[in-house]
Structure formats: C-alpha cells, structure tokens
Amino acid sequence: MEPGKQQGRGGGGGMMRGRWTMTLLIGLAVGMVSAGGGVASVVSTAPEDGISTPLGSQPGNPERGRALMLDTDKGNCVACHFVPDAPFPGNAGPNLVEVINFGGRSEAWLRQKIVDPKVYNPDTIMFTFHKTEGKRRVAREFDGKPVLTGQEVEDLLAYLATLKKP
Question: Domain 46-162: what homologous superfamily?
C-alpha cells in the first residue's frame, strides 16, 4: 500500500483508535467503580424492604407510566435508562428491562428507588422524584415539591411491570 493512502472503511488508524477506545472504557469503568457507581451500585446488597404502601389512590396505569418515562418535563427516565422503543434511550443508568427481569427487586424496592434512590446508594447520581426535602440543584418549579406525584410513581411502577418477561 502506498504511503498516505487509507485502507478499508475505517480510514486507517484502526489500531490506534481501538487502543484509545479501550483505554477510555477502562478508565471510565475504574472511575465509576472507585466512585461508588457502575457495577458496584447496580448489584446492591441493600435490604429489600422499600416502600410497600402504594403512594396513589388508584392502581397504576401503565400507559400513563410509559408517557411519564418518556416525558422530558416530568420523569424523563430514558435520559439515563434503556426501555424498549424509546427514542434515544440513555445508558448512564441500568437497563430497566434487565433490572425488572434479572434484578430480583420487589415493587416496594422499586418504589423506594424512584422516591429516594439515595436510601440504597448515597452516592448515586439519580435524583429523587418524589421526596421533597434535602434536594440540591433543583429547578425552582420543583423546589420543595415532588417531581412526580404519588399516583405518577404508581403509574411508572405499572409500566415497569409490563417489562417483565414470562
């Protein structure tokens, strides 16, 4: 091959690009684990008590829950989590299909995680959606107020239940 010509579809530099990508991934993984995030926080050994009492006056509605999951002004769960058919799902948080199917978590645990995730992992970057005290760096419209009502938490849980595979 002549000097200066590119080889293949990658435009050359494949070996260097591969090493750079691998170095970046390893660095991110080490940083996440050492900071209390990543795999260590997903595989939590927290007690399975959670919040067993529903927060809404009605059973959750999965259609409303899915809408909240995608709503950028409310839940916006897909900014960080993968759920099926979501446009541009995030990957900063765990895949919710895997959490529901392989996480072994109860509805009470999931309710607590939505209400105040810091109960299980004080270092989590996930913010509280229903707790009103102790919030930092929150939009004025949500200062002292929940992002989601109790009924909306139940709607999210109803949607998450639809992700359970038989």
Answer: Cytochrome c-like domain (1.10.760.10)
